[in-house]
Amino acid sequence: MTEPTAATGPAAADALARFRAAIVAYGGRVVEVPDLAAVAAYAAERARTRRPAPRVVVERGARDEAAWRAHADVAQTILSTPPEAAEAAAARQAIIDSDVCVGLVDWAIAETGQAVLYRSGEWGRLLAYLAPIYVGVVRADRFVPTLADFLDGLGAATVAATPAITFVSGCSVSADIENIITPGVHGPLELHLLVLPST
Question: Domain range for residue 153?
């Protein structure tokens, strides 16, 4: 599998700034955090805004077990992507019932403000679109300047071998029914993208 080339040096800072501006324009939020413990604290804080005993689903690679122990009031489901076949129905239901889902973002595209998900397949999409609040976690060294840079770097063979590439670009808002604006119909009510330092 080929990978895109991330922006580096001053171009990386510019890519993050452009990405942040686009996500904010779409109603989302971009926050730089130091580590996975900060991700846990952020996600738990957002979950507590939903109800007294909130539920969070966390993709395994976005979870620091010790950090989550400090948030025992938040019910947590850890999701391996993909889950074992016997656990798939329970995992899907946990996502549906959750207040917040935390998932890994493969790449971030600066020009369009899109978080790209493809490694976790349908499970990444479920995390991003079914919960009222989606917290995506991306590393600072996973930003590309343009959509063309992303697709060129990914390569035709990888694109052909990937069942779906998902582009998440903001909070869900629809006016499909009687032109009444309704948030959260086709995705999350809130989109938060947390940027971890480069590896």
Answer: 10-173+182-196
